[in-house]
Amino acid sequence: MIPAREALERLREGNGRFVASIGSRDTLRSDARHIELSKDHKPFVIILGCSDARVPVELVFDQGLGDLFVIRVAGNIVAPSQIGSVEFAAERTGARLVVVLGHSRCGAILATLEEMARPSKEQSRGLRSIVERVRPAIEPILMSQITPTDDALIRRAVRANVTASVSHLRHGSEILERLIQTDGLVIVGAEYCLETGVVEFFDGVQA
Ligand SMILES: [Zn+2]
Known about the structure:
The chain has about 210 residues and is α/β, with parallel strands linked by helices. It has eight helices and five strands. A hairpin with a 6-residue loop joins strand 4 (about 185-190) and strand 5. Zinc ion binds near residues 52 and 106.
């Protein structure tokens, strides 16, 4: 089992290689690695990220087959199936770090801000289910004098949404609460910058 602090360091180092364009993804093409992995599932981290095509998690952390347990959903929201996936991975694989990874200019956040500014009746039930999960996190920071496309507002909204997902995972599951209290599980938030490729882990992250 890899402790959360060490897992976080691996992610930081991998993202550093990605940003420096010195990725080492040869593990993806190793037959020996395929065979080894068919016998065991031991990812060192669980990542809840956005489905956005510009944030492929294995690439931005320069990790290979078997390294990351990844859940991707638009807006990196936490619904019951995401909690269940994290519980499964934390209990069954032994990963001790969970990262909620948001990103700049997230379309799900923009859609929510636009919906709050100009409610539309045409939104499908499926899309509404995402907007309604994002809305409570960003409602408090939506000020009437700012337009939904204001950059500063979008940045704050992205972070507020990640923080809300982290809080939801920390407090929305008895299994995860127990693992946090007694078994070294750490849940942290982070943001990927589309422009630079850098992942910033939020303040107070001392895994
Ligand atoms: Zn997104």
